[in-house]
Amino acid sequence: MPKAIVLLSGGLDSATTLYYALDRGFEVRALVFDYGQRHRREIRAARAVARAAGVPCQVVRIAFPWKGSALLDSSQKVPTRLKIGKDAIPSTYVPARNIIFVSFAASFAEAVGAREIFIGANAIDYSGYPDCRPEFFAALQKAFDKGLKAGVEKRGVSIRTPLVHLTKAEIVRLGTRLKVPYDKTWSCYNNFDKPCGTCDSCRLRARGFKEAGEPDPLSGVRQKGASSRRVCQ
Q1: When you count CB atoms within 10 A of the terminal residue's CB, does the N or C end of the chain come out lower?
Q2: Average pLDDT, stretch 25-42?
């Protein structure tokens, strides 16, 4: 069975990507990042999703001491844009985040003999982050082909972005078919007891479920605490 690393944030897209990789027959290891994000609730969600999927997950703790994002600096308010444009990059952008995350995944992949990295990036219904666009991943793939031992030896590590050209509604429909436990996911940029419903991520999630004709299990429901049983290192 081929091995794959899946970047798992605990959100709708990454959970769908995890189940997509499993459906494709990969032996999956989930990689979760604790990077000082204000919405730490997503780490708990990622653990819950990994547990539901029956896959091991590795939590990596890193720091961005220079901040540079509303997701890292509690003194900044999370924006509540009424219109989410793809040209204006919001303050929730974390500088170079996906470069760093996917590079960690490449190191993990080489160490365990995985040939694929899956990431749930999306460039259709998204906040406009530059590191979620197809051209970014194409450029990073070229760097991996030249800079990894696996790449030089022509047995490279491939970056897979199965959701990059899908709308949020299409992602929800795909995840529903794959039986993704969306009740265990967390998309909100805030660390509240329940989703705020006004940040970019909440708005995009709500639009996806509405257009897909599916109920969002988190909508208006107070979430219970996750199990204390740990499956992540």
Answers
A1: N
A2: 97
